[in-house]
Amino acid sequence: MKAKWCDLFVLGLVQCSNQFCLTSMLAAMSSHLNACSRVGQLKVERFEEVDEQIRYLLKLVQKFDDLKLSSMEFAYLKLISFTANDLPGASPDQRIHALHMQAMQELYDHILSVGGVTGFEDNTSENDSSSAAAVAASMYGTLDRYSQLLMLLPTLRWFKQSILVELFFSGLIGNLSIETVMPFILAMDVMNVFDNSDGSESTALPGAQSLANILCKNEE
Length: 220
Hints:
Domain NR LBD: 1-189
Subcellular location: Cytoplasm; Nucleus
Signal peptide: 1-16
Pfam families: Hormone_recep
Strand content: under 5%
Structural class: mainly alpha
Distance between the termini: 25 Å
Oligomer: single chain
Number of helices: 10
Helix content: 55-70%
InterPro entries: NHR-like_dom_sf, NR0B1/2, Nucl_hrmn_rcpt_lig-bd
């Protein structure tokens, strides 16, 4: 999870982009950072680095929108990405490799079934040639979509974890490392993240107090 959380986060972010207007939010981030850069609150080099990541996210959202992925296809891409042994220093694991291969095969089978091709049997009817042509066309369509979906995964290497943490998590975790906080994020009750249980006002960003409470309880 420490090595692959960023891949899963980006895929989940893109999948839910329409639900919270991600493109508008990213455009607002870019505009705000640009303004900070112009008045000297942010170094130009830093702005360019962060803005590049924002533009990559916008480009990736467009790529996914063009392909109109189903929730099942998103699920398989997440599993394939999570089990891929594609990072420097990653050690091979036969069980994870087997799971990776199974996910690849099941994604292909899913696309094939959605395309309506479940097999082709020889027969002597006058429709043989047209049936064969239809199956061939459907198989080509399956391979084409399968290829296009897998070609999305290398784009996940566009992103730098440190910048994504700064953009989306800094208000929640402060100076803590994302690797330290991740187990608590996975275990926390997300419905109560923005609750202020004592009813008092706080200057902390929404969610920061909830996460701090979880960390403190764990240390007791």
